[in-house]
Amino acid sequence: MNHFPPDPYRTVSTNSRWGRPLASLAWWSFIIALVSGVVLSFNYRPLGDVFVVVSKLTHLYPFGALFRKLHYLSGQFFLLFTMAHTLEHFLKGTYLRMAPARWTRLLLTFLLTFPLVFTGFILKGDKQGIFAGEVMVHLAREIPMIGSMIADILLKPGETFFLRPYLHHTVILPFLIVFLLGGHQKRLLPEKKLGLPLLAIMVTAAAVWQLPPDIPPRANVPYVYGPWFFHGIQLLLRHGPPLWIGIVWPMTPILLMAGLSFAPASCSRWIWTLSAIFWFLHLSVLVFAWIILPRLPRGIG
Amino acid sequence: MENFKEQSTDRGGLVNKEDSRGITRRKMAVRCIQLMAAGGLFTMIFKFIRGVRATDLEVFFERKPRVNEVVFNRGVYLVGLEQGIKAFSDRCPHLGCRLFFNKEDSCFQCPCHGSRFSRNGSCLQGPARKNMVALELRTDDKCGSYTARLPIC
Amino acid sequence: MKPDSLISVCVIAVIASLLIFQEMSREKVTPDSMDGCSLCHMPDTDPSPSHPVGVMGCTGCHMGNPFARNKTRAHIGMIKNPGNLQVAGKTCGQKNCHPDLPGRVEKSLMATNRGILAALQNLWPHENAESVQDVFELIKRPAGRSLALDHYRKMCGGCHLWRSRYPDLGEIGKRGGGCTDCHIKELETPNSDLSKKSFRHPGLTTRISTDNCLKCHNRSARIGLSYTGRFESEGYGTPFTKGGPGPRRLSGGRFFLELPADVHHRKAGLDCIDCHTEKGVMGDGKTYQHQEEQVDTTCKTCHDPVIRTDDPDSELTRRLVQANGRQPTIRRDFFIMSPKGSPLYHLHVNSDGKMILYRKHDGKPVRFVRLAKPKIHQAAYHKRLSCQACHSRWVPQCYGCHETFFGQADQRGWLTGKKRPGRWVEGRSYLRFRRPALGVRTDGSIGPFAPGCQVFIEAFDAEGCYMPEKSSRHLVMASFDPHTTALKPPTCEACHMDSKVIGLGEGALKITDTGLIFNPVYQSARSGLGIDFPLDAFVSAEGRPLQLTSRPGARPFSLEELERITRVSLCLPCHDRYDDKIFCDFSVSFSRFRMGEAPCGKEAP
């Protein structure tokens, strides 16, 4: 049984009954998302009236809704399984037995899942997606010195609003993730048997589950929501400075986790505890936001 | 029948017969289901990629061209001939480059491979072997306008 | 194959088969449709030839999700009335459609109601801290304590473009709706029809009929009624028909009498839009305080035009002609512009110099004269007279507006549709049709004035106690064009010898050496009004203004002007021609008469 925080002076097996399946499920979700994304890209165009493009793709083209839901669900599963997998190794203290560079590289992969899903949210082209893009750019601009440059790389407002997020979502981020995983995924491929059941579950879910409604860009709505994992930050951004809430606050637990493998043994438990506290706070704010955001007073749209 | 092996298995009375290729009925059934699943998935992918058929384009001309006059609008040439008015697609029937009207020679010409066509659309010089594509044309007698239907492919 | 993999494959195969079957049986959107709305809604008529549903689709105007099959998803963000000013910038005002218009309309007086709000806040009991400039500010605010604004919310606020069309019944339900307030041809399409496969879509038009303007312009100055020859009568509904009130009815339980309509309506059949240009009605993007600043037409615009040989805005002319759809295609060598530069595309000048107006609603030609009779129109002694001063045949004059505010009752406000504490009850002293009183307008010209408004306010609080601090009165005479233009002006005596027209009111006027002596008919004090002058008196016989005016600089005639006007009346019985030499310098002529040097009469009165 593991002890928390993991004891740097104890050798604990990093294998567990759930470890490999979780990772495999994350990897298979990624593959399903990749394949369904390629299918969608035949009829998706990130230029012009993207909302109409997505509406046509979803409702007009045969099976468009299915592939869109499959892509969405597989993306969310990829994020969730990756989080679960990372959490598992965080709790077990795998960083204690792993080269710091490798731990950091894998952590970066985990970090990149968030912008991957976020850019996918932007690409749906509705009011929520557009506003999410605007918020992303403005948050990036808050970073001192290099903020403008990062914002330009992420998104260029105007006629080509969706083009750069599209490049990030379809090419750059998937490529980076695969590259950063390196040989890590070779350990997951033996779990091939999980692929088909996962696909079956996702296809079934995609057939019966309804997508959240797309909000037309011109619609007057009193409140616009970002992606589900962003709601906590969205709630805090109503009150706090954007740089601290939008950049520093989410990055802090990741940086602490990255620091775990570099920290001397005497400090690692404190850093671990601090990191755990931050994650707990994130989760609490997120749950609180899910409850409180729909109940906030509405203004005139 | 040396190649035929008969095996019986206690699986609820199911007799698992294998032929010389080692395929059992059970395996055949599994293959069929796999094919159905794969076929279903590929059918859906193919239909989605193919999308919906785009509509034909209607190209409007305000007035009737005079004899020997050629008018162009949105991919359609409207030609006034002695025998009447004709509409042609501006795509070369060879490989699809857009034809231009050479006023000096009074013929349509392809800038890609040099095919030439007369004003009534017939092929004068290759490498194209077919005539220009004639389009469906309708006229509004009240205001003298013409509308050509250009298929979108 | 392992059992769990086999199950997965089976599940995938079954789901795929079901989905393929479902797709094959799903109704397809026809290739010609611009969006998927036609699966459930297919109008058989287009809103207009320039708004064909088959080309533009529905979501271009009505928003929503263009291809969603599910009703809830498809209707997210959908707008039933795209002309609503709250959304017009995104619908009618889209980049490729009418991008400049919603911004102009939002600043126009029909949207801001600035004049009405300014008048109320300046003259009625009002809390300055609650002051607003236009109605959009008022909509956003909760009701306060100002009686002026409360009156607006409950009594005047039904007539502005920010108001949502419906759900009220009758005339009030047809007011408002932003762009659609004017541009929709009224069509009663029940809501239940909209979900049918075929229904009649309400039509859009630029040929707005006078009846449309009358939805709002039948109150207050009642210019819409006057233009069409209707006078709001005393409310009995006489003459009775079959023992009951007659058929000449107006909204709000009112009745009307028929009087001579404006000549432009009666003889020429012109609608309001034949004179009032799009810039004058929709605004030019500037914010104006009063209607005369926004209105983009005068009598001279047509009757004494500035004729150009070039069209400074031929593109706009072409678009307006195309949008109208009724103008004949004729070659134009001459062009006429409105005072603010709108092309008057329906006005033509023949080669012989004659004017033709092609009516906007049907393109029928109307030939008319330019400013004729120069001896009359260019007479130096009448140079201050406006066209309306002579050519307005009558004006409805509503004297004494008695407003009582009952704090203990409720009344629905027009801005929110909700009931709020406080109820207004309104009544008048009397209503007349008569030639208007004349006075001096802000620009120095002489024009007609009518009561606008003579308000007597009594206010009671929520306990029913009288509130003296919120009870007041103010009597205002306002100048406006009565829209009762007559071809023939009145006789000279009708102005110079009529005490009512010169502003004294109805009564007996005596011109003496020592001044004017006037005995009014109406006795205000004895009628319990608490004022010492008649309601129809704009000025006293001593030249003292008796009532306020609604514009700075506007006033009744001064004593000197009254004496000069009435003095002429003494000679009119014999000298009734415009070109009579005595009028070249009447002061001199009158002095000669007094001195006995004139050929006529040796005795001075």
Q: In words, what does this structure look like?
A:
- Chain A has 301 residues and is mainly alpha-helical.
- Chain A has a domain of 195 residues: Up-down Bundle (Cytochrome Bc1 Complex, Chain C), CATH 1.20.810.
- Helix content of chain A is 65%, strand content 0%.
- In chain A, helix 3 packs antiparallel against helix 4.
- The longest helix of chain A has 29 residues.
- In chain A, 42% of the residues are buried.
- The mean pLDDT of chain A is 88.
- With 153 residues, chain B is of the alpha+beta class.
- Chain B folds into two domains: 46 residues; 94 residues, Rieske Iron-sulfur Protein (3-layer Sandwich).
- Chain B is 17% helix and 31% strand.
- Chain B is built from one helix and twelve strands.
- In chain B, the strands form four sheets. In chain B, strands 7-8-9-10 form a four-stranded antiparallel sheet, with no helix packed on it.
- The two termini of chain B are 58 Å apart.
- The N terminus of chain B is likely disordered.
- By secondary structure, chain C is of the alpha+beta class.
- Chain C has four domains: 96 residues, no CATH class; 43 residues, no CATH class; 92 residues, no CATH class; 193 residues, no CATH class.
- In chain C, the strands form six sheets. In chain C, strands 10, 11, 12, 13, 14 and 17 form a six-stranded mixed sheet that branches.
- In chain C, strand 10 and strand 11 form a beta hairpin.
- In chain C, helix 7 packs antiparallel against helix 9.
- The radius of gyration of chain C is 30 Å and the shape is globular.
- Chain C starts with a helix and ends in an 11-residue tail after the last helix.
- Classes of the chains: A mainly alpha (301), B alpha+beta (153), C alpha+beta (605).
